[in-house]
Sequence to fold (464 residues):
Amino acid sequence: MEYLSNIQLYFSEDLNLITDETEVHHIQKVMRHNIDDIIYVTDGKGTILKSKLTRIGKREIIIEKIEKYQYENVLKHISLCIPLLKNPDRFTFAIEKTIELGFTNFIIYQPKITTKKEFKKERIEKLGIAAMKQSLRSFLPKFEFIKELNQLDCLNINFFDQNGGENFLGANILTGNDYTFVFGGESGFSSEEYRFLKNYKSYKLTPNRLRSETAIIAASTLIAMNQQLINV
Amino acid sequence: MEYLSNIQLYFSEDLNLITDETEVHHIQKVMRHNIDDIIYVTDGKGTILKSKLTRIGKREIIIEKIEKYQYENVLKHISLCIPLLKNPDRFTFAIEKTIELGFTNFIIYQPKITTKKEFKKERIEKLGIAAMKQSLRSFLPKFEFIKELNQLDCLNINFFDQNGGENFLGANILTGNDYTFVFGGESGFSSEEYRFLKNYKSYKLTPNRLRSETAIIAASTLIAMNQQLINV
Fold:
């Protein structure tokens, strides 16, 4: 697999025709591309196309394939269940970093302890697309939203807790099995959330306190690095 | 070693007398503590004192030891050499996260490629204290500032590069030896920086592009988790 760097990546589900307003604007007005220029486009399904601009319209851009790069979603069997954080910057940071590390499945929940906030679904999905493009990934991140953690309906649930069981090193994940990893909010888990989680496996990252987004990024690093090694 | 959680930690080099203006203000005006209240104070040298407030003056607070917690600096032999990033939020995040993970030695350099920015030394040191307190760490982070990467004068220099050599998993670090890990800026290393680095060992984190701060946090996670395991 060849990995690209130092390119600008665009997103279009259709790899012949780009119609997304933002992408069309960026190609035409920001990057000021002309006919015959080379651009890179991903369909969010594992393909990146090196392509030539053959037609630039106001609302659509037609491209022609020059070279095709195909990738595998190494972390497709892993879901991260992440709370909406009070601090939007920290939430954004956690999502951006985990996408850079290669994660594509997200379940976002409203933690019990913090004040209820509405999901800004569209904003979160846009954030996902931006992070995919920036880190030159080719799988569109998928987001599921649940109101309460106990609505989580997955096989093989694991959670991280400062007082958790085993030390987590990311090495004990088997390919072929599905996994969901649950992280707590800024104030940890509520007693109701604990009642739900008590049937599942808990892990500990460090003996000292980590902020929510730090735990998310640290655990994701360990998972991603280990899965990557298996798949080399 | 007992690790604390859900406490507010203060910093005072003198563990009998708190004179730092911000800390005195916080204890008195923000937390509104009274005589005989219990607070936790670290000296930044590995000790956290559970202590009783015995006197609250306008400029100083006298405390009395109740219990002493002593920690070991597990990562004292490791230095992180981090570039000043163009985006101050991303720089702040990198510093905050690595301190949470237990790092205490930082060398900050000005990367060649980006426009020259002055170091805001005081701001960076304050950030270090805040991150230490927030993550209930007890070692004051030390910062060294160098104008150019080739001024780096350390034993055992290693650097991270997308096109680097060995895959990095953090397991190949020996205790008892000193290590310095160098990270590139937003645009990678300049050719001059590469000339300096070419004599040293390079590592690769992931095959795809990672932002500077992501590489810093991911590598730090791998180092910290492995060193922690050795020291359990």
In short: Chain B has a mean pLDDT of 91. Residues 212-230 of chain B form the longest helix (19 residues). Chain B has two domains: 9-70, 78-230. The interface with chain A takes residues 1, 3-5, 89, 93, 97, 100-102, 134-137, 162, 167, 169, 205-211, 214, 217-218, 221-222, 224-225, 228-229, 232 of chain B (CB under 8 Å).
